[in-house]
Specification:
The protein has about 240 residues and is an alpha+beta fold. It has 2 domains: about 5-125, Jelly Rolls (Sandwich); about 135-240, Homeodomain-like (Arc Repressor Mutant, subunit A), CATH 1.10.10. Helix content is about 50%, strand content about 20%. The protein contains 10 helices and 9 strands. It has helices at about 75-80, 85-90, 95-125, 135-145, 155-160, 165-175, 180-200, 205-210, 215-225, 230-240, and strands spanning about 5-10, 15, 20-30, 30-35, 40-45, 45-50, 55-60, 65-70, 90. The strands form 2 sheets. A 5-stranded antiparallel sheet has the order 1-8-3-6-9. It has a 4-stranded antiparallel sheet with strand order 2-7-4-5, with no helix packed on it. Helix 7 packs antiparallel against helix 8 (about 205-210) and helix 7 (about 180-200) packs across helix 9 (about 215-225). The longest helix is centred in the middle third of the chain and has 32 residues, at about 95-125.
């Protein structure tokens, strides 16, 4: 069964075209404005897109955007159970899928060419098209925050995503976590940064930005306040214990 998985960058603009295989496009960095069969949408850290064989599509991306692309043969349609995803076209990315995207970015294309037959189906399965999804906009907000804490999440944006007022936003966070929205988000961002510190050798300044902090100093202050340690000290301790 034809199946490939690759990290790609696209030209800024690609006009109407089509191909004879199924393609799932998942975001790594940046965003893509895309139209699939006349249905416009946007691939960003919270949404992927699935293009079916023969579907005419066009896209526009920023120069530094990168995407994880899964290509598979039309005959894989039933085997991989992606018909429901294809009907949606624009598919929400749960935290499990985000972790797999990050893993794929870390291992690189050489390793992906070897592991595509295992990682590809796992990635499709992680999108969980048959899993019940919460109808509560606040719970959907929390899922999006956990999946992509590094995005520009102001309280205004949170309230809009959850379709509630600012006072209701604060009330829901107090009830659920006994914290303000930004305090809770900072904790999630610290956890994200610590995961990158443990799993990668990326520069701390880059990890800080990926996790949603303005710079390395901001991450350092947050970690020292919460756990009385710096990013560098945390990374050193984790490597020694590993």
């Amino acid at each position: 069964m034809f199946l490939s998985l690759e990290v790609r960058s696209y030209e800024r603009e690609n006009h109407n075209h089509h191909h004879d295989h199924t393609q799932l496009v998942l975001p790594i960095h940046g965003r893509m404005e895309i139209d699939v069969g006349g249905r416009g949408g946007c691939i960003d850290p919270s949404v992927a897109a699935l293009v079916t064989p023969g579907a005419v599509h066009s896209q526009h991306t920023s120069a530094d955007s990168r995407f994880l692309v899964l290509d598979c043969a039309p005959t894989a349609w039933e085997t991989l159970q992606i018909e429901r995803l294809a009907r949606q076209i624009y598919v929400p990315i749960p935290p499990a899928t985000r972790r797999l995207i990050e893993f794929a970015e870390l291992v690189g294309n050489a390793q992906l060419s070897i592991t595509a037959s295992q990682l590809g189906p796992l990635m499709l399965s992680s999108l969980s098209p048959d899993a019940p999804r919460s109808c509560d906009p606040f719970e959907q907000l929390i899922a999006r925050l956990r999946a992509n804490p590094g995005a520009n999440w102001s309280n205004d944006v949170m309230a809009q995503v959850a379709s509630i007022s600012m006072s209701q936003l604060h009330q829901r966070f107090r009830q659920a976590f006994d914290m303000s929205p930004q305090a809770w988000l900072t904790d999630v961002r610290i956890q994200e940064a610590q995961r990158w510190l443990r799993a990668t050798s990326l520069p701390i300044c880059e990890i800080a930005l990926r996790a949603g902090f303005s710079d390395q100093a901001s991450l350092t202050r947050a970690m020292q306040r919460v756990s009385a340690t710096s990013p560098a000290a945390y990374r050193k301790t984790q490597k020694q214990s590993g």
